[in-house]
Amino acid sequence: MGCQWMPTYVGMTKVVQLNPIRTILPIQAHSLQNIMESYKKLLLANRAWVEEKLSVKKDYFERTYPEQKPEFLWIGCADSRVPPTDITGTEQGDMFVHRNIANLVVHTDFNFLSVLQYAVEVLRVKHIVVCGHYGCGGVKNAMGHKDLGLLNKWLRHIKDVYRYHAAELEAIGDEQSRFNRLVELNVIEQCRNVTETSIVQRSWKNDHFPYIHGWVYDLHTGLLKDLAMMKPDEDINSIYRYDF
Ligand code: CO
Do 103 and 48 share a structural domain? Predict the structure, then answer.
C-alpha cells in the first residue's frame, strides 16, 4: 500500500479568512481523493470557527476555560442530523452531552451512568433533556426483524418499549404514524428510566433537582416538540423507588 498519492497537507491561512464556515468549506466528496481529504475540511473549519469566535469576543475561550458549570444534561441520539448545541442555540459550557443510538437510558450502561452521576452530583445540572427525533434509524430498525448482530442487543431496549405499548401502537393503522409514536414513547420511557436511577432520586430528595424533559426533534422543520416533564414529585412506580 503506497502512500504516494496521499495529498500533501498544505497551509490553511488563506482559506480561513471568510465566514460563514459552511459556505467556504462545502463537503463535496466527488472523487476518492476528495473523500480521503474530506477530514481536512474539519481542521480548516476549526480554524475559521476560532477566528469567528474571537472576532466577536476576544476572550471567548479564556472565559469558559477555568471550569464548566452547565445547566443542562442532554441525552440524545448519535444521529448526525441532530446536533444538540446547534438546535438549541447553546454555546460551549452550557450543556453536558451524552449521545448514543436512539437516545437510550440503559440502567447497566456504565458509560451513561458515569455521565449521569457526574452531571447530577458534581455539575449539579438543573435540567436533563432526553431528546429523540422522528425518522430515527434505531427506532425504525427496532420495529423490524432484520438480524443486525451486536446492534440487536442495543435495539432490544426499543423492542421492549414497543411491547409495553403494543396495544396503543398496534391500534395505529398507518405505519409512519406508528413509527412516529414509537419515537415519542421511546423518549418518554427513557425519561422514566432516568427517574428510576438512585442518582436522580437521591438528588430529588436532597436538592429538588433536576427536572427531566422529554423532547422530540422534527428533521423536516427543525422544531423541537416538548412531550413530557418529570419533577421531583413524580409518581415513580414503587418497585423502582429507593429509600435513602
Ligand atoms: Co436516531
Answer: no
